[in-house]
Amino acid sequence: ILFAFSAPVNDNNCVPASVVTITFDDSYQSVYDHAFPLFQKYDIPAVAYVITDRIGQPGYMGPKELQELEKAGWEIGSHTVTHPYLTELSESRIRHEIAESKQALINLGFDVRSFASPYGDYNDQVIQIASEYYYSHRTYWPNGINDWPVNSFGERYALKNMAILPDTTVEEVKDWILEAKQEGKWLI
């Protein structure tokens, strides 16, 4: 299994048989302080979905930490400007949250390809707007493992994930990984 991000390929530019992607939402400082050193130790990249208005705020990573993640092979993705419930906003406000967050990350030097909706809150309008700016859109609900490779528009803009919550066991995570491997799927 390859640990990868929004458009996984291996060193030979071949599509792997199955994929596991680890993502972190919100760009908390704790990701840099605790997860990043552990992931570096085992040479595992991940994805950090960033709320751009919180970059450098207390408790959140700043530009230097995000750049260090990217330099180590992590993908920096967008998680909106202010982390709103997107389905409660007007079309122009959705567009602002989606487009401006990408632009803010580009201005910091990042190649931004993927987007994750805050709270997993999305609808057809959110997907349509996200598809104008990003290669993919990761949801939060429903939980699930994705087909691999992802071929259709609908799959690419409604990527499912399996959330690790405080009561999730190591055995459950191992089972998800084994399922992805055995079925040739993409576990996020």
Distance between the termini: 12 Å
Order of helices and strands: EEEHEHEHEHEEHEHE
Low-pLDDT sequence parts: 1-7
Number of helices, where a helix is a run of at least 4 consecutive DSSP H or I residues: 6
Using the CA coordinates, give the radius of gyration: 16 Å
Major beta sheet, specifics? Answer: 4 strands, mixed
C-alpha geometry: globular
Q: Please bin the fraction of helical residues.
A: 25-40%
Per-chain topology:
Blueprint: E1 2-3, E2 19-20, E3 23-25, H1 29-41, E4 47-50, H2 63-71, E5 75-78, H3 91-107, E6 114-116, H4 124-133, E7 136-143, E8 146-147, H5 153-156, E9 159-161, H6 170-183, E10 185-187
Parallel strand pairs: 1-2, 2-10, 3-4, 4-5, 6-7, 7-9
Antiparallel strand pairs: 8-10
How would you describe this protein?
This protein has 188 residues and is an alpha/beta fold. It has six helices and ten strands, in the order E-E-E-H-E-H-E-H-E-H-E-E-H-E-H-E. The strands form three sheets. The chain has a four-stranded mixed β-sheet with strand order 1-2-10-8, covered by helices on one side. Helix 3 (91-107) runs parallel beside helix 4 (124-133). The radius of gyration is 16 Å and the shape is globular. Residues 1-7 have low confidence and may be disordered.
